[in-house]
TrEMBL record:
Domain of life: Bacteria
Domain DSBA-like thioredoxin: 6-208
Entries under InterPro entries matching the protein: DSBA-like_thioredoxin_dom, Thioredoxin-like_sf
Protein name according to UniProt: DSBA-like thioredoxin domain-containing protein
High-level lineage: Bacteria, Pseudomonadati, Pseudomonadota, Gammaproteobacteria, Vibrionales
Name of a matching Pfam family: DSBA
Species of origin: Vibrio sinaloensis DSM 21326
Molecular function terms, GO-annotated: oxidoreductase activity
Amino acid sequence: MKKVRIDIVSDVVCPWCIIGYKRLEQALSTLSDSLEADLYWHPFELNPAMGEQGQNLKEHLQEKYGTTEEASQSARQTLTQLGHEVGFEFHFSPQMRIYNTRKAHQLLMWASSENKQLELKLKLFHCYFTDNQDISDEKVLIDAAANVGLDSETAKLVLADMTWAESVATTEQQWLEAGINAVPAIIINKKHLISGAQTSELLVSALKQINNL
């Protein structure tokens, strides 16, 4: 059994990040007889300057990318179908909002030291895309942490501690300086970059080649 290190740079409000992860999960399942993976999640904020109230998602996409109503609707339908194919539920609505994710990344960084990072990451994707919750809200974040077995009181302290926020910002800057400016970004064994939500077939092929399987 070979071991592989997989670093994933992502944001919890990035729909392609959860699709990319679920496809990776499928690929690793296919190779489970010969390959064992250690996963590490790293922060990336799509909207670091987003205010506390967030912004309507359609309005945000129109302002940031010039996305039309028709294109937005088409993208949501595509994402919903792709989510269905990998076992993830997207519930898009006209009222859906985009939020600042700095505090979410603070909790995720702490969760790594508690060996609960993957569980929390998946829970936050579910909170945002499936339940349409405000993942900049501290109560939502603390409840999510508690749901995966993390201590609520410690979670509160992590959210209030600026050193965690600074650690997130520093880590994000390091990835930017390393050339990561879009997510998801999957790095295999610290040197092989796979950008975007690639198919599980491509990921299986890449993992085999990289690990000489």
